[in-house]
Specification:
Structural class of chain B: mainly beta
Helix content of chain A: under 10%
Number of helices of chain A: 0
Oligomer: heterodimer
Distance between the termini of chain B: 37 Å
Order of helices and strands of chain A: EEEEEEEEEEE
Order of helices and strands of chain B: EEEEEEEEEEE
Strand content of chain B: over 45%
Number of strands of chain B: 11
Radius of gyration of chain A: 13 Å
Shape of chain B: globular
Radius of gyration of chain B: 14 Å
Strand content of chain A: over 45%
Distance between the termini of chain A: 40 Å
Helix content of chain B: under 10%
Largest sheet of chain A: 6 strands, mixed
Shape of chain A: globular
Number of helices of chain B: 0
Number of strands of chain A: 11
Largest interface: A-B, 19 and 18 residues
Chain lengths: 109, 118
């Protein structure tokens, strides 16, 4: 079966760095996505990885290792507004998005 | 960036009635739109893939006669929850892929519709 695992909840301090991990087992691979979702709102796109390596976009970076079925989202210089759920999603061989359950990130002052 | 709208944002209806939710791509054409459902503190669950001019493809376990999907134009898809029951209460989100985007990796999400069935 298809499976995406990410931690349920993480806590970090304002100004610090946090890494959210995601491991996946899917039928084929056509890219991995990270989305941010604030409570009661729809997800917003953060990053996309299809090749191994690190993609940097401002305070956010995303890493992919296809051989290990592993990705992480790195958030630097954390701000209170970064408190949200972070969803990992993999596009499988049918170009369907398979979603993880999301990681709730709590930022403390 | 591309914008997708949903209407209504919130709806409360009585058990047994039907509710229609609209999803529109405002500045691009979308051959394919997706309908998701999300329970509190849970991930998104794909309900169906809506294809313009053809029948929607429903995921396993989703009743097509209960969740009617119509994708009549390249900018509009509708989801109708028929004979709603309290267990249908949920957050419904649509997303759309830009038809001109080729192998574009991005789905654009609507803001979601909170349905409460009393």
């Amino acid at each position: 079966g298809q499976n995406i695992d990410q931690p349920t909840e993480m806590t970090a301090t304002e100004g610090a760095i946090v890494q959210i991990n995601c491991t996946y087992q899917t039928s084929g691979f056509n890219g991995l996505f990270w989305y941010q979702q604030h409570a009661g709102e729809a997800p917003t796109f953060l990053s996309y990885n299809v090749l191994d390596g690190l993609e940097e976009k401002g305070r956010f970076s995303s890493f992919l290792s296809r051989s290990k079925g592993y990705s992480y989202l790195l958030l630097k210089e954390l701000q209170m507004k970064d408190s949200a759920s972070y969803l990992c999603a993999v596009r499988d061989s049918n170009y369907q998005l398979i979603w993880g359950a999301g990681t709730k990130l709590i930022i403390k002052p | 960036g591309a914008v997708v709208s949903q209407h209504p944002s919130r709806v409360i209806c009585k058990s047994g009635t039907s509710v229609k939710i609209e999803c529109r791509s405002l500045d691009f054409q979308a051959t394919t739109m997706f309908w998701y459902r999300q329970f509190p503190k849970k991930s998104l669950m794909l309900m169906a893939t809506s294809n313009e001019g053809s029948k929607a493809t429903y995921e396993q376990g989703v009743e097509k006669d209960k969740f009617l999907i119509n994708h009549a134009s390249l900018t509009l898809s509708t989801l109708t929850v028929t004979s709603a029951h309290p267990e249908d209460s949920s957050f419904y989100i649509c997303s759309a892929r830009d038809s001109e985007g080729g192998d574009s990796y991005e789905q654009y999400f609507g803001p979601g519709t909170r349905l409460t069935v009393t």
